[in-house]
Amino acid sequence: MGRVQNLTRADALSAVRNPLAFIAERWTPTSRTVQRAALAALVMAVVIVVTGGAVRLTGSGLGCPTWPKCTDDSLTATSAMGFHGAIEFGNRMLTYVLCAAVGWAIVAARSQKPWRRGLTRLGWAQFWIVMSNAVLGGIVVLVGLNPYTVAAHFLLSTALITVAALMWQRTREGDAAPRPLVGKSVQQLVWFLVAASVLLIAVGTVVTGAGPHAGDSSEVDRIPVSWENVAKLHAVLAWIVVTLTFALWFVLKAVDAPRGPLRCTRDLFLILLSQGVLGYVQYFTDLPEALVALHMLGSCLVWVGVLRVLLALRERPEESPADLPGPATSALTRA
Question: How far is Cα 43 from Cα 293, in angstroms, rounded to an integer?
Fold first, then answer.
């Protein structure tokens, strides 16, 4: 076992002033470690959405009736609050697990050599989205599960998944300028797919806000539209996304595109088919809670799949030695 370096007072002051730089000077993670850290943040971003759905589907949205405390007199759930209090408080605690995963991604990205500033920024973007969504989640409770705030809460979680997926992709790429792998017409088709997917997710939040799962056993306001009509619109948009995905796969095959975009498009198509079957089954079985929870997981996977298709349209190789900053530049940019 090697000798542990003594920690001087100067080291302690340095750690307090800039803990990330202090860790980076003493730890160099492998590329695989950074990738795993980014993937952990992405997985936790999806998990927090699914567990938030479980809170809603079990009617535990007001299990902790206030925020930031669970009750006016207790920071945590009490035994008198029963099952609903435990579910809601447990979901709040998972936010700390999410913060830990995002924190690990930030530290790993900051400690990588050479330092890739863009990766660190993506990590911090996730952190601030988590903090913003935590505050918004508190507002959701304080306004009695207003469906519009619930929808905004979900959409902000989708933004978190977006940034986490982007960071995960960037850990597996270099920092050279991106080079397109397909032509402009294919890129435009993919952007149509992205736009349709965004609209699909947005309409999905309206279905949830108008549907029967209000999130609590008490009387909770709903979006004043027919959820069945909105669900049908949601299904039409889903078919549009499926059609665009199939058309994209056909076009990629026709132009002999690289394997990466083809593979990501195929994966997205399979996810969409599974999600479509699940959606129809839950619609015709009066929205059982378990199927709705799986559908929420599927929604996250669909969006991650769409992002993977978009990001697979270009490659970013490692920078050549001539492009890397010299020692003087590195010293100036080191934080």
Answer: 16
The 10s digit of each residue's pLDDT in 198-249 is 999 999 999 999 988 888 877 889 999 998 899 999 999 999 999 999 999 9
Helices and strands: H and E segment counts in the chain: 11, 2
- Assign 287 to helix, strand or coil: coil
* CA-closest candidate to residue 128, choices 164, 92, 94: 164
CA dist 16 and 9 (Å) reads 11
Question: Could you tell me if 307 and 168 are in contact, meaning their C-beta atoms sit under 8 angstroms apart?
Answer: no
Which tokens is 90 given?
């447990």
Q: How many residues in total does the chain contain?
A: 335
Per-residue b/e over 246-262, b at no fewer than 16 CB within 10 Å? eebbebbeeeebeebbb
Q: Please list the residues that pair with 216 across neighbouring strands.
A: 60
3-state SS, 34-98, equals: HHHHHHHHHHHHHHHHHHHHHHHHCCECCCCCCCCCCCCCCCCCCHHHHHHHHHHHHHHHHHHHH
Distance in angstroms (rounded) separating the CA atoms of residues 203 and 215: 18
What are the CA-CA distances from residue 105 to residues 29, 32, 80, 146, 154 (Å)? 11, 12, 38, 33, 22
Residue indicated by tokens 């479980």: 54
Q: What is the pTM of this model?
A: 0.89
Write the single-letter amino acid at 121. R
> Please, are residues 99 and 15 in contact by the beta-carbon 8 Å criterion?
no
For residue 322, how many C-alpha atoms fall within 13 Å in the half-sphere facing its CB? 0
335 Cβ partners below 8 Å, 6+ apart?
18, 20, 21
